[in-house]
Amino acid sequence: MRIGSGFDVHAFGPGDHLMLGNIRVPFDQGFVAHSDGDVLIHAICDALLGALALGDIGRHFPPSDPQWAGCDSVVFLSHCHQLIQEHGYVLGNLDCTLIAEQPKITPHAPAMQQRLAVILGIQPTQISIKATTSERLGFTGRGEGMAAQATCLLLKQ
Ligand SMILES: Nc1ccn([C@@H]2O[C@H](COP(=O)(O)O)[C@@H](O)[C@H]2O)c(=O)n1
Ligand SMILES: C[C@@]1(CO)OP(=O)(O)OP(=O)(O)OC[C@H]1O
User: Fold this and answer.
1) What does the entry list as the binding residues for a divalent metal cation (predicted)?
2) Complex ipTM, two decimals?
3) Which strand (E) or helix (H) includes residue 82?
4) What is the CATH number of the domain that holds 123?
């Protein structure tokens, strides 16, 4: 059994939606990022890679590589899922927290769980998506961006 944790941040910039858990969430801004900026998937990737002690998302998909410009973050997550299988593990469960004042995440959480479960080949009940504000403190509190945390448990097959 191995545990992993991931953390990511993206700033808000021009746009009209956010990609979160591969779900398009309507918003009056977008993410500033090299890829599609899916901060939730990026944190999950780092948790999975961390559990395997295989570095972080930037090591596997360098932000300096134009190949990943505007990339759908499902590409990154599918790669991490493949690595789990190659190392003889299955994903036991995933617990995630998004930190932002806006948009409200809770109405979209079930869709994110469903979508991530399909990508990762597990049940939605094995995935938890939570959200909190930072009580208007710090960069998330000022509405400058969003942070995501993820914790995973891998089980030996
Ligand atoms: N972006 C967010 C932030 C919070 N929520 C939900 O609201 C609850 C209360 O948030 P506090 O920061 O005041 O504790 C939180 O537990 C979430 O259910 C949300 O959906 N989206
Ligand atoms: C995902 C990658 C892909 O180049 O770029 P970004 O979309 O900027 O996201 P970040 O969370 O900074 O992770 C680094 C990169 O791997």
Assistant:
1) 8, 10, 42
2) 0.90
3) helix 74-86
4) 3.30.1330.50
